[in-house]
Specification:
The complex is a heterodimer of chains A (113) and B (112). With 113 residues, chain A is mainly β. Chain A has strands spanning 4-7, 10-14, 19-25, 32-38, 45-51, 56-59, 62-67, 72-77, 86-94, 100-103, 107-112. The relative contact order of chain A is 0.34. Chain B is mostly beta strands and 112 residues long. The chains are: A mainly beta (113), B mainly beta (112). Chain A binds chain B through residues 1, 4, 6, 9, 32, 34, 36, 41-46, 49, 89, 95, 97-106, and chain B through 4, 30-31, 33, 35, 40-45, 48-51, 56, 58-59, 90, 92, 94, 96, 99-106.
């Protein structure tokens, strides 16, 4: 089955700096890679996703890149703000009748003033 | 539009007790999922239902059963709870077009 590894496990940046979180996956058949943000006591919320036919996707301060050859994808957050502080999860999987996802172990991002 | 709702929010059980976690979605999604989240381990898929009337095992199904009651509801049952099942349980749903999974707020379960 799919195995997704995520680094780093914790990340501290100053407000206004950029943050980068990296994930690798093992199954070359995986074609869908979402990123979720989880705030304390809440369920994960999708912030951006990318499919295997696209190399990069951007939404305001958030971007995701995908390298299918190397089997890795990354989340980039620019101009970080205190409200970006949360746990971020990457995931990989196959879409179809149900989008079965394998999640990374999470990155706790802290944005300091 | 409430999205995905889960009940209860928090539950304490003794070893050997049984309980059912309830999940409902009002987005007319075909697929529903149950995950557990443990510290340092991310979210792991327990069971999923691709469509009404079907269920399949995920990564960690042992000790659990599920029922897809109708298109809206997907329940998770622990027949004989064990301390190893102490976790936060999340339900999610997705449609066939966007395939984005939307998560509920979670149920925190403590088994003593």
């Amino acid at each position: 089955g799919e195995n997704v590894e995520q680094h780093p496990s914790t990340l501290s940046v100053q407000e206004g700096d950029s943050a980068v979180i990296k994930c690798t996956y093992s199954d070359s058949a995986s074609n869908y890679f979402p990123w979720y943000k989880q705030e304390l006591g809440k369920g994960p919320q999708l912030i951006i996703d990318i499919r295997s036919n696209v190399g990069e996707k951007k939404d305001q301060r958030i971007a995701v890149t995908l390298n299918k050859t190397a089997k890795h994808f990354s989340l980039h957050i620019t101009e970080t703000q205190p409200e970006d502080s949360a746990v971020y999860f990457c995931a990989g999987g196959n879409t179809g009748t149900a989008s079965k996802l394998t999640f990374g172990t999470g990155t706790r991002l802290q944005v300091t003033l | 539009n409430a999205g995905v709702t889960q009940t209860p929010k928090f539950q304490v059980l003794k070893t050997g007790q049984s309980m059912t976690l309830q999940c409902a979605q009002d987005m007319n999604h075909n697929s529903m999922y149950w995950y557990r989240q443990d510290p340092g381990m991310g979210l792991r898929l327990i069971y999923y239902s691709a469509s009404e009337g079907t269920t399949d095992k995920g990564e960690v199904p042992n000790g659990y059963n599920v029922s897809r009651l109708n298109k809206r509801e997907f329940s998770l049952r622990l027949e004989s709870a064990a301390p190893s099942q102490t976790s936060v349980y999340f339900c999610a749903s997705s449609d066939r077009v966007q395939e984005t999974q939307y998560f509920g707020p979670g149920t925190r379960l403590l088994v003593l």
